[in-house]
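INFO  loader      accepted 1 record
INFO  loader      residues=258
INFO  predictor   begin
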Amino acid sequence: MLNEIKSIFNYRHMLISMVQRELRSRYKGSFLGFLWTFVNPLLQLAVYSLVFPYMLRIQQENYPMFLFVALLPWIFFTSSVQNATTSVLNSSNLVTKIYFPRIILPLSTVCTNLMNYIYSLAIVIPALIITGIDLTWNLLWFPFILFIEFIFALGLALIFSALHVKFRDVAHIIGIVVFCWFYVTPIIFPLSIFPEIMQQYISLNPMVAIIEGFRDIFLFGETPNFSALLYSAVVGFFTLVIGYFVFKAYEKTFAEDL
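INFO  predictor   done
INFO  writer      dumping C-alpha cells
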C-alpha cells in the first residue's frame, strides 16, 4: 500500500489535472455553468423544506438549515460512490493504452466531488449567519469529520469501481442501495424521532455519526460525538483497506475485461 501511495504521489500532476478537467467539463456549455454546483442542492433543499415539515409534521427548529448542513455532505458521499463506480469503465481507452496507477480514476472522482462540497460552503456559511446561527470554534473539527467521510467514500469507490468492470450490474445496484441508504440516515429527520432501540440499530450506519457531526459543529455549535465518530473512522479505515485490496485484485484483469 505504501508503494501505491508513492506511485499516486509521483502521478499527482495527472490526478490534479483529471480533477480540474472534470470540474471544468461538468458544466461546460451550460448557461449557468459552475453555478449548477449550488442550484441542485438548493432546489433539493427547497423541496424537502416544503414537503417534510408540513406534510410529515416534523417539528424541528430552523429546519431548512437542519436539512442543508446534512444534505450537502450526503450529496458529496453519494455522488462520489456512484460516479466512481463507473470511473474505470468510462476510462477504458486510458486503461488499455497507457500506464498510470489505475487507482487514480476512482480517487479523482472522489476528489472532484470533495471540491464541489468545499465550494458549496460558500452558501452554507452565509446561510447559517443569515438565519441567526452562531458559528463557534467547533468548526475547527470540520476537516476531521470530512476526512472520515472521505476515506469511507474512497473505500467504497475502490470496491465498486473494480467490481463494475467485471459485473456491469453493480452501478444499478448501487443506485438502489443509495436510495434506501438515504432513508436510514438522519438527513431529513432527527434521529430522536425513532424509539431508542431503533436508534441503536440505525447508529450502526457509519454515515449517522458523520452527518450528526456536521450538524453539531455547524448548526448547534457543539463538540462532535467523538466516540461515535471513532466508530465511523474505524469502519471507514477498514473499508478503505478492503477497497484497496479488492481494487488491486481486479486491476490485474482490467485490460481484458474492458
